[in-house]
Amino acid sequence: VQILSIDLGTNLVPALALAVERPRSDVMNRPPRSRNERLIDRALLGRAYGFLGPLQAVGAMTSFLIVLESGGWSLGETLPTDSALYLRATSACLSTVVVMQMANLFACRSRDRSAFWMRAQANHLIPVGLAVEGALVATLVYAPLGNALFATAPMTWGEWLRAGLFAVLFLLAEEVRKLVVRRWGRNIKGAPQR
């Protein structure tokens, strides 16, 4: 149910924001794509499933395990799925995914340009998407109905800060990857040009 809340809830408006992203100003200066080149290619799949996805998984699972360990859980111990500690840990995992997805919104605006270079003002749906995403995850974590329907529990400020830290580290890792693509990717077939 929490995965569905991400896929069908918190990610919906930010995904729409990416769908209406304006083309780059230099789009007409680039040669056209080959007729045989696909929109979803190995580079895109590698970036999504080989780099960005695993970073988010590590952040989310680390949040989950830190909450469990700080609550006295130890490896191998069975924890009831309705216990307060388990619910808080799954809430931390869910919230970390959502906060990292907020950073991912900025990371995915371009395959090769820095998220810090692109202005959020150019796409007015981005702040709306972030606000909706934040409101939905807060509702899931703090509203009694959200707690009952999505098996969540209120989180501490420290857990939110940890989610934010993982989001920053995620965005910085993607910025390093983009820097490598910009600097050395020119020699790689199909790599974006400056």
Task: Walk me through the structure.
With 194 residues, the protein is mainly α. The chain is 63% helix and 0% strand. It has 7 helices and no strands. It is elongated and about 60 Å long. Residues 187-194 have low confidence and may be disordered.
Shape: elongated
Alpha carbon gap, first and last residue: 42 Å
Please give the radius of gyration in angstroms. Answer: 19 Å
Biggest β-sheet: count, sense, barrel? none
Q: Can you give the helix content as a percent range?
A: 55-70%
Classify the secondary structure makeup into a structural class: mainly alpha
Features:
mainly alpha; 0% strand
Task: Tell me briefly what this model is.
With 194 residues, the protein is mainly alpha-helical. It is built from 7 helices and no strands.
Q: Which secondary structure elements does this structure contain, and how are they paired or packed?
A:
Elements: H1 2-10, H2 12-19, H3 42-70, H4 84-107, H5 125-142, H6 144-150, H7 157-184
Helix pairs in contact: 2-5, 3-4, 3-7, 4-5, 4-7, 5-6
